[in-house]
Design brief:
The complex is a heterodimer of chains A (272) and B (366). Chain A has 10 helices and 10 strands. Chain A has 272 residues and is α/β, with parallel strands linked by helices. The chains are: A alpha/beta (272), B alpha/beta (366).
């Protein structure tokens, strides 16, 4: 029997290029469940990614897709959404693509409340290029470019997006599939800048070298064991939360989007 | 009309309905007028967070079916090379204005003539237009959109601080008199549509976001269906087509004016604002009995080899005046160096050669 979600895969072509046990497959699956449960019309959707493992997800989706340049997915998305606000735009990106090289586009897309859904996989490293230090790598962890341990502090990207003005912000992990699908559905329905961080395992590189866990199942268990809900986290001290993952929905509010405001202004201009 | 405004009006006449930009002198008036004009014509304007944002927003809008443009000046144009590379590979029609300025200062220059052609990574051809007056800024902006739509390639308008900030009277024709080119749309159902298969002219048809064709755009090597695929032969064929679609039409699409080239013995080859003083210089030389001629290029890339060869057929001396250290001279030398002496006349002081100065140069070689 064929997987019912295979109809959302471009040319029904599998397998994908992700390593065995990579979280990108789970993120792709969660997105397909969300699209299916919402019965979205994929011909009015555009998937956009930059460069990196997770940014390759758009290439597998049976919809218009941009497999773009590293870091620029939200810049493309701004042009697409403003040109045709009726399109549903979903951005699939990673922590390097979105928060390092694309950080400027991220904060400004959030500030503008651009009506797109961003799903950012966070595996704590640059996996496609061989496991270099990322802005999300935990302090003290060993990567190929922090061979004596990371001396920098990691970025809390959900807090960044919240501060920049994102109107839907949530974090889950690949160990929370049901919550993740629910969050993606909420994100796809949200009118405004929706940002969903998915903490994800990389058993091939970061798991093996930084965490010492190369088994995919153990990687997912590690995510589960180190996750606290927002409510649990509030009772813990900052020291206790070092290296831990706080999951939950942090922001959900309704404000006019960039494209709403533009169309409103356009109407005023043409009406005069 | 101000030069930068003429660019905006030309763009709107050509059908431009999306503009993204980032502030930089001397291109600011383009953004400012676009911010004013776009909502009036049902178009979209956005000031992005940087030039990278601008070039990719423009790519996204073009894929969504809008004719789209950005404008910047030399330092900002550097950043855009990354997006130009993408637009070449994914075959996205976009127009980029580079109002050239000197490094770190806002003085006029023509020093981006090589970057405009070779700045982006990877195999590519580039169409680069070099207007010399406010009228030409208007006319050539329309041509830029027409070329972008026809070839599905980025097109560069290489303006200069000199002409972009100059005011001159211009004639704007009625819209019906303008020749406007639009990208070819698919004519087969989605199951049969090969989005990266060139037609006879090597240019593929182009769908737009929101229709049924669901194309994947990528700068990775891709087959004619758009599927990411890597084989050495496929890669070679892809970039052969992407470059040949323009290179094979270089002489057909060339834009230039000539003056007294039928019998000229000393030929000036020039482009952009430099042409302004040269026209007068050639007339003065003729009055003095010097058989001078002028080839004024309104498009410097692809190289108009036929136009150069024909204009230079009786000339033994070719002078190439430029407002830089002498860049395009090398191109002219490559084309005509075997049949004539090609001499670089650089003047890199933020101002063009005066007719008198050029006359001196004629006298030196006459």
């Amino acid at each position: 029997m064929e997987n019912p979600n295979l109809k959302y895969i471009r040319g029904r072509r599998l397998p994908h290029m992700f390593c065995q046990g990579c979280g990108c497959g789970q993120i792709l699956t969660a997105l397909l469940f969300a699209i299916d449960e919402l019965r979205l019309d994929t011909s009015s959707m555009v998937a956009i990614g930059g460069v990196g493992c997770s940014s390759r997800i758009p290439a597998y989706l049976d919809m218009y897709a941009i497999h773009g340049i590293h870091g620029r997915s939200l810049a493309y998305a701004t042009g697409v959404k403003l040109a045709k606000p009726e399109l549903k735009v979903v951005v699939l990106t990673g922590d390097g693509d979105c928060a390092a090289i694309g950080g400027n586009h991220l904060i400004h897309a959030a500030r503008r409340n651009l009506g797109v859904t961003v799903i950012m996989a966070n595996n704590g490293s640059y996996a496609m290029t061989g496991g270099q230090l990322a802005p999300t790598t935990g302090q003290g962890f060993y990567t190929t470019t922090s061979p004596r341990g990371n001396i920098e502090r990691p970025f809390d990207i959900c807090r960044l997006v919240e501060a920049a003005g994102g109107t839907y912000v949530a974090r889950w992990t690949t160990a929370h599939p049901a919550s993740l699908i629910r969050a993606i559905k909420e994100g796809l329905l949200h009118r405004g800048f929706a940002f969903i961080e998915v903490v994800s395992q990389c058993p091939t590189i970061y798991g093996r070298y930084a965490l010492g866990i190369s088994d995919p199942v153990k990687s997912i268990e590690y995510l589960k064991e180190n996750s606290f809900t927002k409510e649990q986290a509030e009772k813990l001290s900052p020291e206790q939360l070092v290296g831990k993952i706080t999951v939950g929905k942090f922001v959900e509010k309704h404000l006019p989007t960039l494209e709403d405001k533009y169309l409103e202004m356009e109407q005023r201009v043409i009406g005069v | 009309m101000l030069g930068n405004y003429a660019i905006v009006e030309g763009a709107i006449a050509a059908g431009c309905r999306f503009f993204a930009g980032y502030p930089i002198t001397p291109a600011n008036e383009i953004s400012e007028r676009m911010a004013q004009r776009m909502p009036e014509v049902g178009g979209r304007f956005i000031q992005m967070e940087d030039e990278l944002g601008s070039i990719y927003a423009v790519c996204g809008a073009s894929l969504a079916g809008k004719k789209a443009m950005t404008a910047t000046a030399s330092a900002g144009y550097n950043y855009m090379q990354e997006g130009i590379e993408y637009a070449v590979a994914a075959e996205i029609p976009i127009v980029i204005v580079d109002v050239m300025r000197q490094r770190g200062e806002n003085f006029p220059t023509q020093s981006d003539v090589m970057q405009a052609r070779y700045g982006a990574a990877g195999d590519h051809e580039m169409i680069v237009l070099t207007p010399s007056s406010v009228q030409e800024l208007f006319d050539l902006t329309i041509e830029a959109f027409n070329f972008a739509e026809r070839f599905r390639n980025p097109v560069i308008i290489l303006s200069e601080a000199t002409i972009s900030l100059m005011r001159e009277g211009i004639t704007i024709p009625n819209h019906e008199e303008l020749r406007i080119v639009n990208r070819k749309k698919p004519i087969v159902p989605p199951s049969e549509f090969m989005p990266f298969r060139g037609e006879e002219d090597l240019v593929p048809r182009m769908s737009e976001f929101g229709d049924e064709y669901k194309v994947l755009y990528t700068h990775n090597p891709h087959d004619e269906w758009g599927k990411i695929a890597w084989t050495p032969k496929l890669y070679e064929d892809l970039y052969k087509r992407i470059t040949e679609k323009i290179a094979s039409k270089a002489d057909e699409i060339a834009l230039y004016d000539t003056l007294f080239t039928e019998d000229s013995e000393i030929l000036l080859i020039t482009y952009g604002s430099e042409a302004r003083g040269c026209i007068e210089a050639v007339r003065m030389a003729r009055a003095m009995g010097i058989k001078a001629g002028l080839l004024k290029l309104k498009m410097i890339w692809p190289v108009p080899v036929k136009a150069m060869t024909e204009a230079a057929r009786r000339s033994k001396k070719i002078l190439v005046p430029e407002m830089n250290t002498g860049r395009y001279f090398h191109v002219v030398k490559e084309v005509l160096g075997c049949s004539a002496e090609v001499i670089s006349i650089p003047k890199n002081q933020g101002r063009i050669h005066s007719p008198g100065e050029m006359l001196q140069e004629f006298r030196k070689v006459a």
